[in-house]
Design brief:
The complex is a heterodimer of chains A (281) and B (411).
Chain A: E1 2-12, E2 22-32, E3 36-41, H1 47-55, E4 62-67, E5 70-71, E6 79-82, H2 94-105, H3 111-124, H4 140-152, E7 158-162, H5 170-187, E8 190-195, H6 198-204, E9 207-211, E10 223-224, H7 233-236, H8 240-264
Parallel strand pairs in A: 3-8, 3-9, 6-7, 7-8
Antiparallel strand pairs in A: 1-2, 1-4, 4-5, 9-10
Helix pairs in contact in A: 2-3, 2-4, 3-4, 6-8
Chain B: H1 2-11, H2 18-24, H3 29-96, E1 99-103, E2 117-123, E3 129-133, H4 137-142, H5 150-187, H6 201-232, H7 234-247, H8 252-266, H9 275-300, H10 304-312, H11 317-355, H12 360-370, H13 375-404
The chains are: A alpha/beta (281), B mainly alpha (411).
Chain lengths: 281, 411
């Protein structure tokens, strides 16, 4: 059964203006339970807007987002979010950052139960030695692990990852990819990964959907990844299926890029009439 | 050991001592010698340069006033009179800039006749001091009173210090004398007799500190909650904006008058002294604006990432404010509080002066009205004490900020 459905999503930030600022148009997507779906796209193509529509931080201008058949009106503990820039609260320790999420998700549990839960998840992401440290004392990879633990501790039915590994170096990135896959495989949650890295998408996902660049970004045709799990990074490069899927997607995206460049070169953009916000009273 | 010492001195805001400690422990001698000079040597040199300039300026003012006095004497009494006045002024200058002796040996009194002795504070059998000044009555009459030199200021400081000891001993004696009587009075349901003698300089400082803290607390209790509320709601922000814009630039003096109008009306039937209440409320109202504006700005400009986290985790309003918004805006709130405290200390002197409330302000005013030989020097002492206390208060705020805020500031 479909856990998440996007129906004819249209999103614009300033509907009244002549320049409409359309970000997304005609987005249709269905994600089945337990699936690992990746959305790949150029930077600036509206990926983060799409994520915020799904997790409930934004509302679509037209169309609807259905989660388990119900319309998404607000954020929910059922959809855990891992942000691109970690978004850990710098004044709280690793433990407290995760504990805050656990307390909110399970308000009826006692302090000890919450603490055990937090400790389990910290152990799962391999940060037990750093449980009392503060975010600024951690490396980028460690911070993203905390962010993963914070999203998972709420026991969400779906994990939404917005370029979670974008800011990490290649080695840490590979490690965390494996870790996220391991966690996903043990819990068999639905996962949605937004990324700009085709290799990462092919390595991790069951299904890959390219996002055509905005304005009026929309989803392209999907590509199925028929590689058996567990996938092995070291031999993957020699796998014909991997090479084929990867090359298809890259070719598609490159074409899109050229098309985009050709169509937009003559367009004259009128800048929106916006003023900087002044906090000085 | 060394590292923990450095950590501690950094934490309490004495980071400038760090290279010296490293130098003593023999670490990177060349680099740390340079650092020590930059952080300790250079400031000390600049202090000496300042004292030198001050001395030159004060002496030239003294001499120009002296010259005109001598000329006047020449007009009135001829060359002999001018010569007499000139000698008096020269010997007076020596005594003004001379030594201040604190002693319990009566033999030291004889030193008063020497040329460069400012005063001798002699311990008496009551345990307090008698101050004997070196200036003769003629010298007192003729000495030019202008900007005091650093040495005069130093002597005024000693005078105030000895005076503090005298008043302290006096108070103690009073307390012992009235202890029994007061017990009796309290038992009878009457008010105890309190010391009503002259306050010492230290008492004035303490009174001023009390006033400034009361005012600061008032500012904190008004400005922080209102700042948070207005920061959270754009509607409220625009609705109180005009109040802030109009009242923020109002002068401390006008605040004092306004508060006096209200407080004297409210307390018309009470007998106590309302000057303390008036001055601390005025101080609070003058100084709270920086905190109000900074708090509102801090709360309104919390990083959207943190707000998104709060939304995704579905934090309740209470949690959202106390776990996310307040910690995120603490650095700005503290910046506001630091400005508030320094403004409070700055306006305090003027307000005490006008409100006739005891404290440093009235001390300065009384000395100015007094016009004694060392009054100006005492005013300069008060000026330095005021500056040092203001500096110390700011350091204390920085210390508290570093204790509870996640962002460390070092300025």
């Amino acid at each position: 059964m479909a856990i998440l459905e996007l129906k004819n999503i249209y999103k614009t930030y300033s509907p009244d203006k002549e320049y409409k600022g359309e970000i997304l148009d005609n987005i249709n997507l269905t994600i089945e339970e337990g699936e690992f779906v990746a959305i790949v796209g150029f930077s600036g193509s509206g990926k983060t807007t799409l994520v915020n529509l799904i997790n409930g931080l934004l509302k679509p201008t037209e169309g609807e987002v259905l989660f388990k058949g119900e319309k998404v009106e607000d954020t929910s503990h059922e959809r855990g979010v891992i942000f691109q820039n970690y978004s850990l609260l710098p004044w709280l320790s690793v433990f407290s950052n995760i504990e805050m999420a656990a307390k909110e998700a399970f308000p009826k549990e006692s302090k000890e139960e919450v603490a055990t839960k937090v400790k389990n998840f910290v152990e799962m992401v391999g940060l037990t030695h750093a449980i009392n440290k503060f975010p600024k004392e951690l490396s980028g990879g460690m911070r993203q692990r905390v962010s993963v633990a914070r999203a998972l501790v709420m026991d969400p039915e779906m994990i939404i990852m917005d370029e979670p590994l974008g800011a990490l170096d290649a080695l840490t990135r590979g490690n965390l990819q494996d870790e996220i896959l391991r966690i996903w495989e043990t819990n068999k949650r639905t996962a949605l990964l937004i990324t700009n890295d085709v290799d990462e998408a092919v390595y991790m996902a069951d299904r890959i959907i390219p996002l055509k660049p905005g304005p009026n970004a929309t989803l392209g045709p999907e590509f199925k990844v028929n590689i058996e799990r567990p996938r092995d990074k070291t031999t993957l490069n020699d796998n014909d299926e991997y090479k084929k899927t990867r090359n298809e997607i890259i070719a598609y995206l490159m074409d899109l890029g050229e098309e985009q460049a050709a169509t937009t070169s003559d367009v004259v953009y009128e800048l929106p009439d916006i003023q900087p916000r002044d906090y000085r009273w | 050991m060394k590292d923990s010492i450095i950590k501690v001195i950094r934490f309490i805001g004495f980071g400038f001592l760090e290279p010296l400690i490293r130098l003593i422990s023999g670490e990177e001698t060349k680099k740390n010698t340079k650092e020590t000079f930059n952080k300790i040597g250079a400031p000390i040199l600049s202090i000496f340069a300042f004292l030198l300039l001050w001395n030159i300026g004060a002496n030239s003012l003294y001499n120009s006033l002296a010259d005109s006095k001598i000329e006047k004497a020449r007009e009135v009494g001829g060359d002999a009179e001018a010569e007499r006045i000139k000698n008096i002024i020269i010997s007076a200058k020596d005594k003004l800039d001379g030594q201040f002796i604190i002693s319990d040996d009566i033999e030291d009194l004889k030193k008063l006749s020497e040329a460069n002795i400012h005063a001798v504070a002699l311990k008496n059998d009551k345990g307090t001091y008698d101050i004997n000044y070196g200036l003769s009555s003629d010298e007192k009459k003729e000495v030019p009173v202008t900007l005091p030199s650093p040495k005069q200021t130093k002597n005024a400081f000693y005078t105030l210090w000895v005076d503090y000891k005298i008043v302290r001993a006096d108070k103690k004696a009073f307390k012992e004398k009235t202890a029994k009587l007061n017990e009796q009075r309290v038992a009878d349901g009457k008010n105890a007799i309190v010391y009503t003698g002259r306050p010492s300089f230290v008492d004035q400082v303490v009174t001023s500190l009390k006033t400034v803290f009361a005012g600061f607390l008032l500012a904190l209790l008004i400005a922080v909650p209102i700042g948070i509320i207005t920061g959270l709601s754009p509607t409220l922000r625009t609705s109180v904006n005009w109040i802030i814009q109009i009242f923020k630039p109002v002068s401390p003096v006008v605040w004092l008058l306004l508060v006096t109008m209200i407080v004297t009306t409210l307390l018309r039937n009470s007998e106590g002294d309302s000057s303390f209440i008036i001055s601390f409320i005025s101080v609070g109202l003058c100084s709270m604006w920086a905190t109000l504006v900074n708090t509102a700005m801090g709360v309104a400009s919390v990083d959207t990432d943190y707000i998104n986290v709060a939304k995704v985790l579905k934090l309740g309003n209470f949690q959202k404010i106390f776990k996310v918004i307040l910690p995120a805006s603490l650095p700005l709130i503290f910046t506001g509080l630091r400005i508030t405290l320094s403004v409070a200390w700055m306006v305090l002197i003027a307000i005490e002066l006008l409100a006739q409330s005891p404290g440093l302000g009235s001390f300065v005013w009384e000395e100015f009205q007094n016009g004694a030989n060392d009054s100006n020097a005492k005013i300069i002492v008060a000026m330095f004490i005021i500056g040092l206390i203001g500096f110390a208060l700011d350091r204390i705020m920085l210390f508290i900020q570093n204790l509870i805020s996640f962002e460390k500031e070092t300025i």
